[in-house]
Amino acid sequence: MARSTSWKGYLKLSLVSCAVAMTPAQSERDRVRFNTLNKATGNRLKQRLIDAGTGEEVDREDVTRGYEFAKGEHIMVEDEDLEKVALPTKHTIDIEQFVPMDELDPLWMGDHHYLMPDDAVAEEAFAVIRDAMKENNVAGIARLIVNGRERYIVVRPRGKGVLLTTLRYPYEMRSEAEAFSRIGDADAPEDMVEAARQIMRQKTVRFEASALKDRYQAALQKLLKAKQAGGSVAAPSPAKAAPEKVVGLFEALKRSIAAEKAAKPEAAERKPKKAAAPRGKGSRRSAA
User: Fold this and answer.
1) Tens digits of per-residue pLDDT, 225-266?
2) Is residue 220 within a helix (H) or strand (E), and if so which, with residue range?
3) CA-CA distance, 217 to 238, in Å (whole number)?
4) Helix 249-263 crosses helix 190-202 at what angle (to 10 degrees)?
5) Could you tell me where the Basic residues compositional bias lies (predicted)?
6) Which residues are within 8 A (CB) of 151 and not within 5 positions of it... i.e. 6 or more apart?
7) Cα(11)–Cα(115) distance, rounded to whole angstroms?
8) How far apart are CA 56 and CA 73, in angstroms?
9) pLDDT higher than 80, residue 38
10) CB neighbours of residue 162 within 10 Å
C-alpha cells in the first residue's frame, strides 16, 4: 500500500537540500467512534448552520471565516486573502539552529510527524543531515506552515527517518509558577522519600510501547459485539471501598513495600544504554 503524505517540500541545511515528504506519526483511525442519532428513529442527525441574525439556514458554500475586531463587527477573510500572507516556510524546512537533545522540554511539544526522503535522489542528502544530528546528539529548529499557520518545529533523527514535532508559542502556555503557587516549600521527610524510592525500584521496568493496552477500547468493542448479537454485557463489579482503618503516611509506605514484595520479585532497574563513541574525523566519506 502506498504511503499517504500530508505535506511535501524540502529539508534544507545551509546550501544542502533534499525533497522530503511528511506523514502524521499518530492515528485515531482504529478508535471506536459514535454517530449522533435520533433516539426515536435511530436515524443519523445532521447539523444545520443557522444565521444568528436572520434565523435562516445557510448553505455550506456560503460559509466563510471572519475576525471579530469589535463586538459584533467582523472582517471577512477568504482563502485568497490568506494566500497573500504565505511565507517561504510553506514549502521549505530551513533548519535555522540546533539545540542539545537533552534540552528539549516535552511540555512545549505538540503534534508528531514522520519525515522521509521523497525520492531516491534525496536519500543521500537526507541521510547526511539525519546522521550528523544523531552523532552530534542535537535537534534542528526550523519553521513550517502547518494547518495554515507558521509554527516552530523541531526535527530529530529517529530510526531511518526524522521525527518532526511542532512547538507551542509562549502565549499558548500557562505559567507553571502560577499553577504551582499553592504548593508549600516544605521538604518531604527523608525516610519517607527513601521508602517511596524503594517502592519505585520494585515497580521499575523497561518501557515497552507494545505493552500499552487500551482496556476501554477493548471493553467498548466487547459491548458493541454483544449488542449487535442481541445480547448484553454484565456490569463490572463495584470497586472495593477504601479500608476503614486510617493509617499514617509512613505506615502506608511500609505496607506498600511489603505488598509489592509479596506480589512479585523486585524488578530490575532501568539501565541506560551506553552512548555510542563519537566517530573520528575521516570516518565518513566526505562529499564534495
Assistant:
1) 887 788 777 777 766 655 556 568 888 888 888 888 887 754
2) helix 215-228
3) 20
4) 20
5) 271-288
6) 110, 143, 144, 145, 166, 167, 169
7) 9
8) 20
9) yes
10) 25
Question: Which of 61-75, 78-92, 161-175 shows the highest mean pLDDT?
Answer: 161-175
Residue where the block lists cell 539552529: 97
Assign residue 169 a region (left: φ > 0; alpha: ψ between -120 and 50; beta: otherwise): beta
CATH code for the part of the protein at 7-25+85-172: 2.40.290.10
- The DSSP result for the chain, as a single string, is -PPP-SEEEEEEETTEEEEEEEEES---TTS-----B-TTT-PBP----B-TTT--B--GGG--EEEEEETTEEEEE-HHHHHTT--GGGTEEE--EEEEGGG--GGGEEEEEEEEESSGGGHHHHHHHHHHHHHHTEEEEEEEEETTEEEEEEEEEETTEEEEEEE--GGGS--HHHHTTTS--PPPPHHHHHHHHHHHHHT-----GGG---HHHHHHHHHHHHHHTT---PPPPPPPPPPSS---HHHHHHHHHHHHHHHSPPPPPP-PPPPPPPPPTTSS----
Cβ neighbours of residue 51 closer than 8 Å, sequence gap 6 or more? 57, 58
pLDDT at 269: 46
